[in-house]
User: Fold Spermidine synthase from Arsenicicoccus cauae.
Amino acid sequence: MDRGEGVNGELVLRTDGTDLEVIANGVFLMDTRVTVSERLMVSATLARVRRGARLLIGGLGVGSSVVQALESGAGRIDVVEVEPLVVRWWERYFRARWGLSGPDLERLRVIRGDVGQHLATTQESYDAIVLDTDNGPEWLVHERNAALYADPALLVAARSLAPGGLCAYWSAWPSEPFESRLRQVYAEVERVDVHRGDVAPDVLYLCGDPR
Ligand SMILES: C[S@@+](CC[C@H](N)C(=O)[O-])C[C@H]1O[C@@H](n2cnc3c(N)ncnc32)[C@H](O)[C@@H]1O
Assistant:
């Protein structure tokens, strides 16, 4: 449907019936077909924090996490997306794919930029932060995102949480080194394996009570 040069290389948008698929530098990134763990990351996080939570989502993607946040009653949602083309596709295609229109979007603010940068500079504090910028700490679509899974950025995210807040990370598989880094920053780290059929489960790390 569209293609272009993004901040991190080539992006291609493909359609398959009513579904949409994004390919980054020739590697599958996301689609609207299977969104179970992207949604669960948000619903599980919001279920553990106060109602009407102020939520930050890192990585807009096709927007399934945003849709879940709206459905799960987040009070205000900031979503930070580094690729202007993805934001354009959200406005042109993804929003309509999810059946969202004006009033649904009043709680949503789409911020163009790097989520690590946003966290390092924002004055906001969030009840919940969900980070799904890559395929996980050990499967980076964009090498520069390694920093988001390293200690300084883990601490920055933890410091952006309001009291009682929770920070969630998405990963395509479990990573013990990453989990142990998280345990140095947070007193509570819960690993949730999201099973879907015969394929290996996606993994969520839900982190609370910063040290
Ligand atoms: C796996 S997708 C997110 C999927 C999303 N959870 C959903 O429900 O569709 C990752 C998204 O994060 C964006 N991204 C990658 N690195 C980023 C960064 N450092 N800051 C903000 N967005 C980033 C990518 O362009 C892509 O849109």
Remarks:
- The chain has a mean pLDDT of 94.
